[in-house]
């Protein structure tokens, strides 16, 4: 059989499934947001002010790439976590780094339009990415991830 046998004493904790499922939904939404923005989906973008749309849709390619690493890295990290793979940590770490760069650049860019609550949301995104990175590291050190 190709079924994985856990080493004696190492059980998959219940919270791994909870964290994995919630993070899959969270990061999945990030991927939807990226995809809808990148494809310029009119219905999805309608609620945003034109000034914000102009800024997002005219970002340099490297910013789009960093955003993609952030959201898809998080999604792959969530999938790896649910599959109990050690790759969860580097995927989440890449997502955290990309989110930090992206949000930091937007915060420091004097030309970036400001939306109410955007700073708080950016902080929440970075915090969740950090916590997922730390969680994957912890699960890896406990040999829950293989």
Automatic annotation (TrEMBL):
Transmembrane segments: 61-82, 89-108, 120-138
UniProt entry keywords in alphabetical sequence: Membrane, Transmembrane, Transmembrane helix
UniProt-recorded name of the protein: Sugar transporter
Taxonomic source organism: Hyphomonas chukchiensis
Lineage of origin: Bacteria, Pseudomonadati, Pseudomonadota, Alphaproteobacteria, Hyphomonadales
